[in-house]
Specification:
Number of domains: 1
Strand order of the largest sheet: 1-2-9-10-7-6-4-3
Strand content: 25-35%
Structural class: alpha+beta
Helix content: 10-25%
Number of strands: 10
Distance between the termini: 19 Å
Order of helices and strands: HEEHEEEHEEHEEEH
Largest sheet: 8 strands, mixed
Radius of gyration: 15 Å
């Protein structure tokens, strides 16, 4: 499964199936490089909240104090649980979170402070709603910056990945903590996006 995540990120790096945006005129920063993935039959056992009714918990989604890929480690700087999912998004994504019961969010930083990232998971009614939210992230809406994100976070050089996983949507977002700081985001993106794997446990319940 780790190879699957690495492969997806390398596709993003290669520029396949990505959207390139500028921040001009936007209400809030968004990722410069974005990839969105609809759900698949693999997640049919959790295709609806009725099939998977237990709420998400911070301990379940963020089981450790850090995430690592390769030589890059990011440490968690804060977590939160939102019952109003619209607080975590803007633009067309606000309408797409109708029926969302919770959004969990964590903010991460590398020890040197040069890379900042966040991971979110949204608990939606069903897989159709999840696909709709991923599509909204790709056209006219996005997530808001987590509280405590460095003021200089460079969205214009950041990367994000959104996945619909049954009735959930995950979004990982990493970028330079200072404007135009040239940092390699590859392993940081793999590390933060790896938190998506925690939802696989729900397929076994």
């Amino acid at each position: 499964m780790r190879k699957w995540i690495v492969g997806v990120v390398l596709v993003v790096v290669a520029g396949a199936a990505v959207f390139l945006w500028s921040r001009g005129g936007e209400a809030a920063p968004r990722a410069a490089v974005f990839r969105g993935e609809p759900t698949s039959a693999h997640y049919d056992p959790i295709a609806t909240r009725a099939l998977d009714p237990e709420p998400l918990t911070v301990a379940e989604i963020f089981p450790g104090g850090s995430v690592t890929s390769g030589a890059v480690t990011l440490t968690v700087k804060g977590t939160e649980t939102l019952t109003d999912c619209a607080q975590a998004v803007w633009g067309s994504a606000e309408g797409a979170v109708a029926g969302c019961t919770q959004a969990l969010r964590a903010r991460y930083e590398t020890p040197d402070g040069r890379i900042s990232g966040q991971f979110l998971i949204f608990n939606l009614a069903d897989s159709a709603a999840a696909d709709k939210l991923v599509a909204a992230f790709g056209s006219g809406g996005f997530v808001r910056l987590a509280p405590g994100t460095p003021a200089g976070f460079d969205g214009a050089h950041s990367w994000a990945q959104a996945r619909a996983l049954g009735h959930y949507v995950t979004l990982s977002w990493v970028g330079p903590a200072a404007p135009e700081d040239q940092v390699d985001l590859t392993y940081a993106q793999v590390a933060v996006d790896g938190l998506s794997l925690t939802i696989q446990r729900r397929l076994l319940l």
